[in-house]
Amino acid sequence: MKKRFSEEQIIGFLREAEAGMPIKDLCHRHGFSEASYSLWRSKFGGMRVHDVSGAIVHDRRHFERLLDAGNTARTIRVDGAYADRDPKARLKEEGYRVDIQHNGTRGNPLSRAQQRRNQRIAKDRVFVEHAFARLMHQGGKCLRTLGLARAKGVIGLKVAGHHLLRLARLQQAGMRPG
């Protein structure tokens, strides 16, 4: 029997509900029952979907999908590749605080204030870079799969392994992740 909705779609529905859309409207809009929603919430509640694309696709194309209305943090930290003026102005209008880590050039080095600002931004971004370093340690840059679906599965398993190791380290330190 073929399922009507993929797991990614179901998690997307749950995120819409978390963002404040009424459940009845959500069910009517996408064509499923409230009982299905309750079942999905018990099965997939709290999950997030990771996104994998081909190497030729620039990360900026996925940027809009990463903005989560249910996220309480309103600061976005990115590097200079995302520094377009239009999205930056629009994000500020929507209430986000945009921290862009700028790079100096040969003829135009960064000022002391810009270097301090970059250091402040880098302190938060380092946690993401540690995750990438762990993925590199788990198998290098090369994926030995054919097709985007298999690559997504392999990367998903590596990310899950990273989260399990991080959870174990937090528990060993006496912290309770909440």
UniProtKB/TrEMBL annotation:
Entry superkingdom: Bacteria
InterPro entries the UniProt entry points to: HARBI1_dom, Homeodomain-like_sf, Transposase_8, Transposase_8_domain
Name of the molecule in the record: IS1246, transposase
DDE Tnp4 domain mapped to chain residues: 74-136
Record's keyword terms, sorted: Metal-binding
Top-level taxonomy: Bacteria, Pseudomonadati, Pseudomonadota, Gammaproteobacteria, Lysobacterales
SUPFAM superfamilies: Homeodomain-like
GO molecular function: DNA binding; metal ion binding; transposase activity
UniProt record similarity statement: Belongs to the transposase 8 family.
Needed cofactors: a divalent metal cation
Gene Ontology biological-process entries: DNA transposition
